Amino acid sequence: MLWKVLVVLGAVNAALAVGIGAFGAHGLESRLSNRMLETYHTGAQYHMYHSLGLIAIGAVAAYTGGGSALVGWAGWLLFAGIVLFSGSLYVLSLSGISWLGAVTPLGGVAFIAGWICLIIYVLKA
């Protein structure tokens, strides 16, 4: 059942986003520059937003029967976006590896593509 996978994946990622965000707020404020702390927090915000998006996509899939590959693509693209976008921002801010800034937009594209897949899926349902 795809909807269950998406809801669980979203809930796990939401829990991770809370922990990662708390670590940033309480454990990194004196260790990172303001710019890198802001970068880290941006990753945590988008992580949470798209975790909730995964849960919502799972709910849409459950409600509509989730028979289309589009709803699956929507969920997997949001998950890929979390890994690429938020993950690259976390690593960039903690390590200073600047080339990771080139990975972040790929995550953003995955987010956008996932939301577009959801739009198409809902309009076709």
Task: Describe the protein.
By secondary structure, the chain is mainly alpha-helical. The protein is 84% helix and 0% strand. The protein is built from 4 helices and no strands. The model has no long low-confidence stretch (mean pLDDT 95).
Itemize the secondary structure elements and their pairings.
Layout: H1 2-27, H2 34-64, H3 69-95, H4 104-124
Helix pairs in contact: 1-2, 1-3, 2-3, 3-4
Q: What brief labels describe this structure?
A:
about 120 residues, about 0% strand, mainly alpha, about 85% helix
Amount of beta strand: under 5%
Order of helices and strands: HHHH
Regions with pLDDT < 50 over 5+ consecutive residues? Answer: none
Q: Using only CA atoms, what is the Rg?
A: 15 Å
Query: Total number of β-strand segments?
Result: 0
Overall mean pLDDT score?
95
| Share in helix | over 70%
Largest sheet: none
> What shape does the CA trace take?
elongated
Total domains, how many?
Answer: 1
For this structure, the quaternary state is single chain
Look at the helices and sheets and give the structural class. Answer: mainly alpha
How many angstroms separate the termini?
18 Å
Helix run count: 4
Give a short overview:
The protein contains four helices and no strands. It is mainly α and 125 residues long.
